[in-house]
Amino acid sequence: MLTIKRLAIYLITFLITFILALNLGNWKKLDNYLVGYSNRTSEQKAILNKEIVFIHLDQNPPGQSGCESFYLKRRNTIDLLYAIAEQSKINNGPKGVVLDIWFGRDNTELDNLLAAIKNLKELNIPVYAAYNINASNESVVIDSVDIDNLEGAHLTEVYNILSSGSEDKHSGSGRYHTNFYPEKNMSSYENDFYFYSNVFRDSTLIESLAYKVVRDLGDSNTMLLEEKRKGSIVPYASIGEMQLRSYFFSPDSILSIQSFIPYNGMDLSQTIDMDKKILIVGDPVNDVIDLGSSSIPGPYVVSWAISDLLDENIRLKLPLESIPVIIGQMLFFALFVALVYALIFKYIKILQTKPFIIGILSFLTILLLLFIYYKLILTFKAVIPVGQTIAAIGVSAALCWRFAHKFLATGIAEGSQKYDIFISYSHGPKADWVEKNVYEPLAAYRNLDGDKLNIFFDKKSIGIGEKFTSKYMWAIVNSKCIIPVITDEYYGKNHCRNELDLAVNRTVEKLININMLVFNYEAVPEPYRTFNYIEVGKDSHFIDIITSSLEKE
User: Fold this and answer.
1) Residue 44 has pLDDT above 50, yes or no
2) Considering 367, 391, 410, which residue would you say is the last residue of a domain?
3) CATH code of the domain covering residue 430
4) pLDDT in tens, 389-406
5) Containing domain of residue 511, as a range?
6) 289, 312, 335 — which closes off a domain?
7) What is the rounded CA–CA span in Å between residue 310 and residue 306?
8) What's the pLDDT at 176?
């Protein structure tokens, strides 16, 4: 019987699961995969923004010692900055130079490095460099970063002169991170990190390098950036396309245009075009992101992020990360599961006694609806979060199944009327009598059309290993008539009592007929002594009476 208490149990179970789904589970991975997949299968090609040119700068040059290698590495960066300056004096210079390189605490060639940066800034060419949040601890947890220790690991003199962009458009700290969270098809990143400093007794803002560059160098109509203020998603684009925009830097004696060699190394007539371009500098060979089964160059991810943010149109499909949206989705689709379950149960009677199958059908139906909703929202360049919603759909379907399995057999289900007769009896002294005098005559009976009766008799109808209780309960729901054979011990047996009580409940709804056979009045359960019954010792024609009642139905 449905009670407020039972309903409350289901509601509380759902709410607990709902809260856990919101706060636990690695749903972000599933949602990130869907974002990456949605962008990867987009009809629009992921074309690198035309303003971007990539320069491959070797960050692991060979040297006879570690010190010599580091000197050559630092020297390569200095030569590159001077080469860009030289070309800018001959032709129009780039919009800016983005170094996906961080400068650790080492004074090697420091004065020359500072001079090279200042030289470009005097030409109104801003320079940006990466600030390594993991510099003091490679396995750092962002929330536990000590900015003062982090500062001590960096060459602060360099970052201090990089504290503003072109023409001081947007002042900054000169410290901009490239901290990405890689997935299989995409990376994601947060834009702003705030760290408290004991030295300055204030919080220090470290923006993402990509966001800072585009805020300074992007056109005014790219202020769709505010939509990505908290961070963004970077689906991996074509490495081949990146390489077509790439040049190796190999300095010659006068730092001429010949210092920039096309990536393929074949078409030497192809010269680098810096005019109003954003030059991104990095080492895609030695700076890679491990994806487990594969890897992706870290500087390429930065380039793709900048390219995306530069786009005037929102090319990428971005995730809807609003908590109200997630909660609304979860509740809507969970309630829709219950509605679909109820509709299937009510109108497809053949499935009424198969609650598990109805649960699966309801789950799959709502998954299809969720997919249609996903495709619809995709047309608005947005990707819905699905992880928690699928969890809510699954829990709702499971609770509907449990509700049906536990309570619907009490008389609510109409049943399929698969069986003409259900024989209920006790496996006691009269069991053989029941089989010989009730089951066998009814099995031999033919109706007016010459058809046999479909009889549920446990010895014949329940196989070895089948769930006994579930089998006979649903058989009663699917029966037109039940014949309880009441012996002295009948109602004292749990299964017999369950069978009779269920049948009586169903008679209230006029869903089953009862033809009760009894051996004596005292054996009849007291609550049911008002029922009509046939006393087999006084009326030997009880089978004829039963079959006659079947013909009238």
Assistant:
1) no
2) 410
3) 3.40.50.10140
4) 888 898 888 888 877 766
5) 419-552
6) 312
7) 6
8) 93
